[in-house]
Amino acid sequence: MIPFLDLQGQYLGLKPEMDAAITEVLTSAHFIGGKAVEAFETNFATFQGADHCIGVGNGTDALEIVIEALDLPANSEVIVPVNSFIASSEAVTRSGHRVVFCDADPHTYLLDLADVRTRATQQTAAVICVHLYGNPCNMDELLEWARPLGLRVIEDAAQAHGAEWKERRVGALGDVGTFSFYPGKNLGAYGDAGAIVTNDAELARRCRMIANHGRVHKYDHEFEGRNSRLDSMQAAVLGVKLRYLNGWIDRRNQIAAKYMKGLTGLHELALPAFDPTRRHACHLFVVRTARRDRLRDHLAAAGIQCGIHYPTSLARLPAYTYLDPEQRMSFRADDFGNEVLSLPMGEHLSDTDVETVIEAVTAFFDTSSVG
Ligand SMILES: *Cc1c(COP(=O)(O)O)cnc(C)c1O
User: Fold this and answer.
1) Cα(first)–Cα(last) distance of the chain, in Å?
2) Do the strands 98-102 and 77-81 form a parallel or antiparallel pair, or are they unpaired?
3) Which are the contacts of 73, defined by CB distance < 8 A and separation ≥ 6?
4) Are 60 and 194 in contact (CB under 8 A)?
């Protein structure tokens, strides 16, 4: 059995350190804010190469808070790639703005800048670039286009902790970036958690106030905010894991390199894009084939768990039937959902596991192409 994810094994490997960190929060009885949160925010800002980090309740809240803090004109258009998790677009609508979907590139699966350009109008105020699967977007091209137009660039880095565009960590390359620490992410909490990073001190201050009832101190509420803070317990958990994250990402890249080598030359299988100028966080290793369902069944029968990210393009979800028909149904990325398969990926995999996956995938295409 080769699991897609092994959170239990990860905990057991960290148990003494993790239990000590959690016990410290329990004995201090400092459950909101305090040392654990401050330490994590400082360390995560440093890790991502950003001046500021604000811990929040989850990655979706992070996006909503950021959009509110940017103070875009009411009812602005915000461009979001169709190949993502719904949080990327949901946050736009929840913040009182309009989602405009753009296509994703069939090779990188990231937002397609040529298509973004055609979708921008006078009402466009921001673009959310999703560093999907842990692969950083081309930030130079995006910023060169967006800056002169005065568009704000939000990086949804929920899957890309530690990823680098030209040796700079993602998150604060645009105006502001958001992270999720959902348990299955490369850096996962033991519950919901998220963070915002930016180099803009004023934006950071507004985000922090929005996430904490529009206040700085206990009762000085300057405006109505909300409650979306990073729990002290989650901060302690994340603080322990952050020490290992770089090593885990390196191991994920090693596994990806083995997959790339072992799976080349299978004509029906498209491998993910690896660009040597970007450090991929390898959150997911996504392959594509027209015979995806049969491949998935074949791997499942061999005890290999896979995932699908994502089965449906955002624009085609029932949640977006309210959009104009031409805003939906017209993306190359609409086909990804029937063809993509996420192979097991993570530091829990041994070299033997990786070889087993490679052999099973290869056997599927070899035997099924005969006759
Ligand atoms: C996980 C994820 C989110 C949302 O994060 P939560 O912490 O689950 O709210 C947002 N965007 C992307 C691309 C994600 O993968």
Assistant:
1) 30
2) parallel
3) 125
4) yes
Q: With CA atoms as reference, report the closest residue to 83 among 61, 121, 109, 62.
A: 109
Written as six digits, the tokens of 277 are 């100028």
Cα(190) to centroid of ligand 1, in Å?
A: 15
Q: Could you tell me the two tokens for 365?
A: 């295409």
Which residue owns the Cα nearest ligand 1 atom 2? 158
Question: Which residues approach ligand 1 with their CB closer than 6 A?
Answer: 58-60, 84-85, 87-88, 130, 156, 158-159, 180, 182, 192, 194
Confidence band for 371, pLDDT divided at 50, 70 and 90: very low
CA–CA gap between residue 161 and residue 181 (Å, rounded) = 9
Confidence of residue 331 (pLDDT cuts 50, 70, 90): very high
Question: 80, 83, 130, 180: which to mutate for ligand 1, most atoms within 8 A of CB?
Answer: 180
* Contact (Cβ atoms closer than 8 angstroms) between residue 77 and residue 149: no
* Helix, coil or strand: residue 160: coil
Amino acid at 273: A
Q: For residue 8, with 0-12 CB atoms within 10 Å meaning exposed, 13-18 middle and 19 or more buried, which class applies?
A: exposed
pLDDT per residue over 131-166, tens digit each? 999 999 999 999 999 999 999 999 999 999 999 999
Chain segment 216-272, per-residue pLDDT in tens = 999 999 999 999 999 999 999 999 999 999 999 999 999 999 999 999 999 999 999
Mutate to test the pocket of ligand 1, among 83, 85, 179, 181 (most ligand atoms within 8 A of CB): 85
**In whole numbers, what is the pLDDT of the chain averaged over residues?**
96
Residues 37-57: tens digit of each pLDDT: 999 999 999 999 999 999 999
- Smallest CA-to-CA distance from 189 within 350, 344, 44 is with 44
Query: Residue 66 in 3-state DSSP?
Result: helix
CA dihedral 75, 331, 165, 306 (to 10 degrees): 110
User: To test the ligand 1 pocket, which listed residue (60, 310, 314) has its Cβ within 8 A of the most ligand atoms?
Assistant: 60
Closest ligand 1 atom to Cα of 194: 7
